[in-house]
Each structure stands twice: as C-alpha cells, then as structure tokens.
Amino acid sequence: MEFPERSVLLGMSGGTDSSVAALLLQDAGYRVTGITFRFYEKDGNTEYLDDARELCDRLGIRHLVYDVREEFQQRIINYFIREYLEGRTPVPCTLCNNYLKWPLLQQVADEQGCDYFATGHYVQKQQIDGYWHITQGADPDKDQSFFLWGLPQSILQRMLLPMGTLTKTRVREIAAERGFLKAARKRDSLGVCFCPMDYRTFLQEHVTDGRIMPGNFYDEQGNFLGKHDGYPFYTIGQRRGLGIHLNKAVFVKEIHPASNRVILSDNLQALEQHEMILTDWNITNPSALLGQNDVIVKIRYRKQANRCTVTRTTDGNLHVQLHEPLAAIASGQAAAFYRDNVVLGGGIIASSR
Ligand SMILES: Nc1ncnc2c1ncn2[C@@H]1O[C@H](COP(=O)(O)OP(=O)(O)OP(=O)(O)O)[C@@H](O)[C@H]1O
C-alpha cells in the first residue's frame, strides 16, 4: 500500500539553519514548501530573499514570499519603542516567535494545505501526559526554548523541528558536505533583527519628538548623583555604561518615566526580589505547573535558573513565588518555566517585589 507524501511548510530566512532544515526535511521524505516572511529589511537589503529562493530552486521546492512588514512594524517595532518609553524592557524576539512567526506559519500552512510547518529553531518537542511541550535543543549553546513558551497545542502538535537534535557545528558540516557553501558559511544572526546591539542608537533615531530628554540620577535616599541621557536608555540591573563615575559600583534600581528619574544603588542585594506577577502568560499543562514546587523560572537567556512556585491570582494573572531571591528583575521581560529540559509555559513580567 502506498502512503501519501506528507507536506511541510518551512520558514526560510536564507540562513544556515533553515537551509539545512530544508535538506533534512526533504531527505526524510516530506514534500517541502519554503516561505520567507518579509519582516524587516535593513537599508532595503533583500539578499536574504534571493538566498532562500536560490536554495529552493536548487532543491526543486516551491518558494513563497509573504510581505508582513507593516504588521511587524506595528506589533514588534512599535511595541519595542513603546516599552522603553514606559520604562520597561521589551522582548521582541519572544513576541515575534510566539505571536507572529509561528501563527503565520500555521495560517499559511492551512491556506496551502500543508500537514506540518517547520523552522530551523534549536528546540525539540515531546508529548507528556497528552500535551505537546517544547524541550531544549541538543546544542546547549544554541538552545532557543526560552523564546517559545507561548505556543498553543494547535501549533505544537504540527511543528517539525529538524535542528533539535543537532549542534550548530554539525549543521554547518551538513551544509558544506552537500555543497551549499554560502549557507555553510553564513554568520549567525545576533540579537534583535531590526535593532543594532546598542539599542540606544536605535531609540535616538526613532524617537525624535522630545520624549527622550536628559534627566537626573538619584540614590535611594533621593540625593542627586549626576545627569543621565534619558530614562529609556537604562535597564534595571544595569551597571556598565551609565556615564557616571562614583568611586564604587552602582546599579540601576528603579526607572521613573513620568519624572525622568533613574535611581541607582550600590547594594546589589537592594535589587533582589522574591515575587513576580506575570501577564500575557501561557501554560502548556496547568496541572504540571501550578502549585508545584520543583519548577524552574528563567528570566534571562543564560546563566540563571531559580526555583519557584506558580499560582493564579484572582484577577487572572500568574503569581511567581521565588524560592531564593533574584536580582535585577525588569518589567516587560519574559519569564519561562521549566522542569528539567521541558518548557512548561511563561509570561511577561508586569511587576516584582
Ligand atoms: N524571515 C523569515 N521568514 C520565514 N522564516 C523565518 C524568517 N526568519 C526566521 N525564520 C525561521 O525561524 C527560525 C529561527 O530564526 P532565528 O532568526 O531565530 O534563527 P537563525 O539562527 O537566524 O536561523 P537561520 O540560520 O535559519 O537564519 C529560522 O531558522 C527560520 O526557520
């Protein structure tokens, strides 16, 4: 008996990972359609579209292009600017992945009649107690699970993740072995795609209406310490690049947008907090997370993992009780919950104390 060929829609950025994902999905017998979303084009550069199209031509697969620049501007870039102006720390990649990229892949897969959809993300998935979960990628240096806590079951169950079991080194080798040299040598993308590593320059260029003005640094007692360039240029916990020289290390403790005040502290312990409230949250399987005391919360991509207990609040948010205090929690940041290598959910930090 012949089984019909299964079809998959693959998000293709023109980069190494999604190029190798196309090869591997084809090897595994899927009928692959590539799609490149036009999210953002720096200085009008569309080379990534040509690279993705060329790769599809070489592999003999169909390639689609969807222009979503307006939606990306509204939902991701404008949000990014707005968050800084509200004294918060935005998470554009988390929002883009959970609320734009994967939902768009699902939508187009439905339009095109594709069974599955895929990306080159370094994550895996696993079914536990009947629920599909994101789990960490096998390459600890590339694992992207921290960004994917917001996906519903309808997406999780249809996603294919060919990079999940591989290391980046191996992925580059595969591209080279198969003669895809440009893909093999492409540089890894760094940071936020539309913003240089120094987000201040970006804000300076995009907020020109006087909402960012020089202001004052104060200590916790309200004593004037010096001038700053404008509160959106600082994040909670920041120590370097404050442009102020006191004969001791100081950290940003509070940001007050209305008064343009930034409060500094020389005591890292003063930045420690024990509780967080999350909005815009998603939980994969409530009984695996709520009220359990072996849950890990991460608010940074690397080098931080705290035990916590998560409960629902009466007004529909999540309350996170940290078992040990955690320093430098910024509102606007994402918190992702884990048990071992399994993502249990996450949300956006509204407040902490
Ligand atoms: N413009 C895009 N259109 C469609 N899919 C995309 C686009 N950008 C990224 N993706 C998908 O999301 C995955 C993760 O993207 P991300 O930018 O985080 O990783 P990356 O390391 O740059 O990946 P790659 O090496 O494939 O460029 C990509 O592998 C790709 O499958």
UniProtKB/TrEMBL annotation:
> Which key words are in the record?
ATP-binding, Cytoplasm, Disulfide bond, Nucleotide-binding, RNA-binding, Transferase, tRNA processing, tRNA-binding
Q: Does the keyword Zinc-finger apply?
A: no
Binding residues for ATP, per the UniProt record?
Answer: G11, M12, S13, G14, G15, T16, D17, S18, F37, G120
List its EC numbers: 2.8.1.13
Task: From the UniProt entry, list the residue stretches annotated as the region Interaction with tRNA.
Answer: 142-144, 300-301
Q: Where is the tRNA-specific 2-thiouridylase MnmA-like C-terminal domain?
A: 274-349
Which reaction is catalysed here? S-sulfanyl-L-cysteinyl-[protein] + uridine(34) in tRNA + AH2 + ATP = 2-thiouridine(34) in tRNA + L-cysteinyl-[protein] + A + AMP + diphosphate + H(+)
Q: Which GO terms describe its biological process?
A: tRNA wobble position uridine thiolation
Compartment annotation: Cytoplasm
Give the InterPro entries listed for this entry. MnmA-like (IPR004506), MnmA-like_C (IPR046885), MnmA-like_central (IPR046884), MnmA-like_central_sf (IPR023382), Rossmann-like_a/b/a_fold (IPR014729)
Query: Main localisation, per the record?
Result: cytoplasm
Q: What are the site positions for Interaction with tRNA?
A: H121, Q333
Q: Name one GO molecular function term.
A: tRNA-uridine 2-sulfurtransferase activity
Enzyme kind, highest EC tier: transferase
Disulfide cross-links: C96-C193
Q: Which CDD domains match?
A: MnmA_TRMU-like
Q: Where is the active site?
A: C96 (nucleophile), C193 (cysteine persulfide intermediate)
Alphabetical list of NCBIfam families matching this protein: PRK00143.1, PRK14665.1, trmU
* Protein name as it appears in the record: tRNA-specific 2-thiouridylase MnmA
